[in-house]
Amino acid sequence: MPLDVILLVLFGALLHATWNAIIKAGSDKSLDAALISAGGAVSALPFLPFLPLPDASAWPFIGASAILQFAYFQLVAAAYRAGDIGLVYPLMRGCAPLLIAATSGFILKENLSGGALAGTMTISAGVLTLALEARRGSRAVILSLANACVIASYTYVDGIGARISGNAISYTLWMSLLPPVLLFSWAASQRGAFAVMRHVRRNWWRGLIGGAGSIASYGLALWAMTKAPVATVAALRETAILFALVISITVFKEKASIWRYVAGVVIAIGGLLLRLA
Questions:
Q1: Is 110:230 a contact under the CB 8 Å cutoff?
Q2: Are 151 and 72 in contact (CB under 8 A)?
Q3: Burial (0-12, 13-18, 19+ Cβ within 10 Å), 276
Q4: Which terminus of the chain, N or C, has less C-beta within 10 A?
């Protein structure tokens, strides 16, 4: 994988960890997630007139991605309600690259080199190591594994969609418009429009900042998938857990167990293996 691709994916991972921290710090994680999704759409709108439309063949992928993104955010909220973030986040983000690495040869006809496969597996192992420090919770585990399947699914959908769209940035921006519509429609049907609008008025800035970081992070990942195998990009993107570790210690003042440091070293080794592959 070229060095410039690695650096941009790592920057995207930093942005990913940052907008997740914004959700973690909020009082209503479900509505904050919807706000960030909406913030991504708002951030995308000014750029759309200057970009070519995605190829017609990419639009079914954009629609499928919106549905999967809706499911993703719903499962994130449910998993965090059921278990510790130290268990949920590593399982969701660590299992998805494993699923992609195991199936990309069949689905995308991408054959990873030995070094790329070793790097992918090492990063996933490092992320999953973080789950060793968390409290056990069978429901949280089930929800996390289910969401790992959703993550792997939308990674495939968007990886293919970005490639056939003719412009990965345009695909990303158009793809960002529909999920917030689904999320806010669902929230309004469950809580009432007044409660949703009250939260939006008080926290719109969180959605705008987090949404810009979210769309930039995912856009960089999709661009990288047009330059390198989807499985290796998906694995490298999960180094976001390292940035999340730093944020948890410096911003949230959380205590880090030995497992977090072990995971950090393992993930760093995996990133090096990908660079050398």
A1: yes
A2: yes
A3: exposed
A4: C
Q: Write the pLDDT tens digit of every residue in 179-208.
A: 999 999 999 999 899 999 999 998 898 888
C-alpha angle 172-174-178 in degrees, rounded to nearest 5 = 110
Q: Is the pLDDT of residue 20 over 60?
A: yes
b (16+ CB within 10 A) / e for 186-218: bbeeeeeeeebeebbeebeebbbbbbbbbbbbb
Tokens 């585990």, residue? 141
- What are the residues whose beta carbons fall under 8 Å from the beta carbon of 244, sequence distance 6 or more? 17, 20, 21, 89
CA distances from 138 to 25, 45, 99, 119, 246 (A): 25, 41, 20, 29, 28
